[in-house]
Amino acid sequence: MRYPNTISAMALVTLSIAGTQAAWSQENAARITGAVVDSLSGIPIANVAVYVDGRNLADSTDSAGEFSLSGLSTGEHYAYLMGRGYLPTIIQFALPGDLSGDSDIGVIFLSPGAPPLAKLSGTVVDVESEQPVVGASIALNGDAGPMTDDVGAFRIPAAEVRWGINILEFRRIGYVPLLTELWIAQEETDLDFDIAMVPSAVRMAEVVVEGNRVLVPARLAGFYERREVGIGEFLTEADWEDRADSYVGQVLHRMPGINVAGWRVLVHSVPYNCRRKGISARIWVDGVSVNPEFIQDMNIADVFAMEVYKRIADIPARYNTNADQKFGGGDSVTSAACGVILIWRR
């Protein structure tokens, strides 16, 4: 078996809006195959991302460490290989013009290495007014990050990123969510962003009122506005009136992805640390943060509506306070990073 030359890792960082991809050349139907193994143990490595010529994701290795890629043109190519827990590796290979059949580019060795750290910072503005977007939430690869400050700025001083593609997500109520791809192939990357978010047109449903006017209490105005936008899960009396549930804790426990265990309200889709440490979702009742124990015996008949936010990127800025909050001498710990539940009483 032929062993390709290994080129030292190259500095490569690209930035592109999600959804844009370079098209593959289909001039020749050349197909390459190869295998990726650990340089120390010789064990095959699965889930290694394989890119060709720095364009788009070509393939990833299977459980045997093998990959294949079709549709390459003849001539010189570079293959970029990046796997979690390994240093990125770049190899060079050539496809001759008279190639017929498959071309085996051999075994590629990856050396173990820690994930890179990146410094991410920037400013988020309204694309139309060019004014700062305050309170925009930022997530890196699905994990919650900081929020923009009063001048629209943010900074992540030491974010653990992946070799290869990373997803940076910006969200703010009233704006179209924005996804940005980062391709990291170098340790200690320092990136600065200028992000322009597009306002989203929120169309309120037409309401025809017949008979007596029904006034909505001011404290519930936010509930109706957020439900109209549709980010989050919203429950009203219609969701529990036909059930035998008597308490708020019972209603929440029935929801997919939520477990009520003792005083804790646990959300399954939140970061691993929340589940491992048993940190409860942050509970707000009529706009006041409360001990989760408070709602266990709260009669559901006294509740008008509830809002459930399982992703930190969706939480309204007013209720997105990431710091841990302790009750009862520190026995009860809640955090918005572990989910947020808003309860509105009658």
CATH topology of the largest domain: Ferric Hydroxamate Uptake Protein, Chain A, domain 1
Please give the alpha-carbon distance between the first and last residues. 74 Å
Helix coverage percent: under 10%
Task: Describe the main β-sheet briefly.
Answer: 6 strands, mixed
Domain count, please report it: 3
What number is the mean pLDDT? Answer: 77
Description:
By secondary structure, the protein is mainly beta. It folds into three domains: 6-110, Sandwich (Immunoglobulin-like); 118-160 and 179-197, no CATH class; 218-345, Ferric Hydroxamate Uptake Protein, Chain A, domain 1, CATH 2.170.130. The chain has four helices and 24 strands. The protein has helices at residues 221-229, 248-254, 272-277, 293-296, and strands at residues 6-7, 13-17, 30-38, 49-52, 57-60, 66-72, 75-82, 89-95, 102-110, 117-126, 137-140, 143-147, 153-160, 164-171, 178-184, 189-197, 233-236, 258-261, 264-267, 280-285, 288-290, 303-309, 325-327, 332-345. The strands form six sheets. Strands 17, 20, 21, 22, 23 and 24 form a six-stranded mixed β-sheet that branches. A five-stranded antiparallel β-sheet has the order 1-8-7-4-5, with no helix packed on it. A hairpin with a 4-residue loop joins strand 23 (325-327) and strand 24 (332-345). The longest helix is centred in the middle third of the chain and has 9 residues, at 221-229. The termini are far apart. Residues 1-28 have low confidence and may be disordered.
